[in-house]
# Entry
Amino acid sequence: MPIDLCCSNLRPLIGGMTMDRIDWKILSELETDGRMSFADLGERVGLSKSPCWSRVRDLEEEGAIQGYSAQIDPAALGLAVQCYAFVRISLDGHEEFEKAASAHPAIIECHTTAGDSDYLLRIFARSVDHLDDLLRHEMSRLPGVHRLSTTICLKTIKTRAPLTRWATAPASGGR
# Structure
């Protein structure tokens, strides 16, 4: 789906760099295929290889592009169970918890939250028994954990949509 790049959708990055239509096109193309050559990318966005490489480098330096990676199927690695854990931390345990959560290999994502929980964790396990073991013997014993509740995912419907499509969508309602 082509991106609607009307002028009102152009927004500055945190570092102050204002992205133009070509920058948005570059991001959209790389979001679809991060392994694309600079020659192919340049052709798709209407630039030659060198200016295209220069813009990608600038987008990387400004933080719009945070890196490149392969999308791995957890089930192919034997990690068939996915859950989200909501964690409440004791008042003085945030720093230690964040260090431990960052270091734990089963915790794929860790987010601070507002509401009933302090953190939201995304965890993968080999089986329900493995998850039970992780929760009882590892997650509940992370520094500062006061309360832990989980939601097990039964089926993944959508893992990630292109951010550039949403970021360039026309504003509606309260947005």
